[in-house]
Design brief:
Layout: E1 3-6, E2 13-14, H1 17-27, H2 31-34, E3 39-51, E4 58-68, E5 75-81, E6 95-101, E7 114-120, E8 126-132, E9 136-143, E10 147-150, E11 153-158, E12 164-170, E13 175-177
Length: about 180
Amino acid sequence: PARLLTGPPTGPHDVTGATDLAGWAHTACLLPAVRSHGVRTVNSWQFASQQLPATGGRAAWLCTRADTWRGTGSRVLAQFRVPVPGAGRGPDPDTVVARAENSPACGKRQPQVLAGVLWKSRGGQWYVLAAGSTQFASLATTGGVTGSTTGRLLAVPAKQGAKAQLTGRLADGTRVSALR
């Protein structure tokens, strides 16, 4: 059995208590996506919170990383969680917006993570949304959607089906691509 953790890669802790369990309730059904032989730990943590355009509420950005006993074969997922109208239902699963294998992203050696998604507001407008962990100083999107921001959250109007290339700069100026 794997050890379930929560918290940034620099200091994760065991999943205990109601808050930790509630957070994992959205992620647990994604565990088959990180299944691998010899998974030692799975750490899921929120790296950003973003106000959605057009009064869409607040979204959460999460990273889930599964590490193995061998040290190779890690799997990383970036997830996007939007508020769901209506109460009394169980938690909706997070949407996986990026995945990688054998990547140092979202781990002790490279704790930063950057992810994006094409999102449709309740009013029908499409946006490219992106978020980076605390290490990011700026974000930019090019390709089918162009925009940039100082800071670690980005929201740019887009068209349905738009393709965007997302990059960010860390505080030290290092350029980082989005998790893929």
